[in-house]
Structure formats: C-alpha cells, structure tokens
Sequence to fold (191 residues):
Amino acid sequence: MKKILFILLFISYFCPLCFASKETAMDKAMKSWIGYSIDDVIAKWGMPNEEKTIADKRTFYWYRSRQVYVPQTSYTNGYVNTQSNNYYNNTYGQGNYNYTTTTSGGYMNTYFCNRTLVVDDDKKVNRWEWRGNRCPTNYKNVKAWVNPQNDIFAQEQAQKAAEKAEKKAKKAAEKAEKQAKKAEKQTQNTD
Fold:
C-alpha cells in the first residue's frame, strides 16, 4: 500500500512535466520576430489587415480565412422482410421494410489563422499571439512566416546536428582509446 501511495505521489508531483505543452510550429514562427522591427515583418508578411493603437501600444493584425461549403449527403441503410402474411400461399406474400436515412453536411465551414503582433515605441516586436483552426502545423508550411534573420527552426536543426556530431566524435574517441589500450596490452603480452 505504501508503495502504491509513493508512486501516486511521485506521478502527481511530476505530472505537470508529463503533460507540458509542446511549442508548435506557429509559436516558433511568431517568436522568431521578437525584438525585430515591424518593418521587417511587413516586408515578409505584407501589409497588415488592421492596425490599432490602444494605451500607447501599437498592435498589428493579419487575418487569413476561407469558407468552404460542405455539401449535403445522405446515406440510407435498411432491410426488407419478405416473409408472407399468408401461411398457405407464399407467392402473394407482402413484405415489410425498415430503413434509416442519415443526412449530414449542407453548411459552411470557416477556416482561419489570425496573427497579432504588438510593438514598442522603437517599432520592435515585443509580444505576439496567433489563433485559428487552419494555421500551419509544420516548418514546411509555416516557413513563409518565419523571420529569415532569426530562423529558430534552422537553429534547432544546427544544434541537433552539432550534438549528433559531438556524440559521434566522442564514440570515435572512446573506440580509439579502447583500441590503443588493447594494442598496449598485446605489446606487453609479447614482451
């Protein structure tokens, strides 16, 4: 019982780490503009759809949306019972049937991805936000919105490659050291 209690306490203590949200491609794209000029953003993204100044904070908005009509479709499922009501004569039997029709669609679906940037007095981006149900989910699709001067994705790839090369070099050094020790033992044994 104490063991189970300990495990539950351990899991509950570290649970926030287990369910921590992962940074999305859009988060990285938006974050890549922090500290950079809004003019650089406009050069990359184009003119914003809207600009507001509230409480001395300039906020820029880019909207992207699309409506798609989902056509109406129907599906019918059922059966026919051909048993006769007449016990003596099956040839003139009457059948009964049962069916269900399911209809779906026939509505407009709106897909959107909105981006918001807030700038300071020096026209540098200091806050960002995005929302939508059709925002890019990977680097390939979000690359058009990433700051080319601060490509977080490229930096992460370079860091991973450097770590991989470092591990490979470390393994090679360990292997060379083992071989040197083995060769040294062999020369000592021959003496």
Summary: The beta strands are 50-54, 57-70, 73-81, 96-104, 107-119, 125-132. The first strand starts at residue 50 and ends at 54.
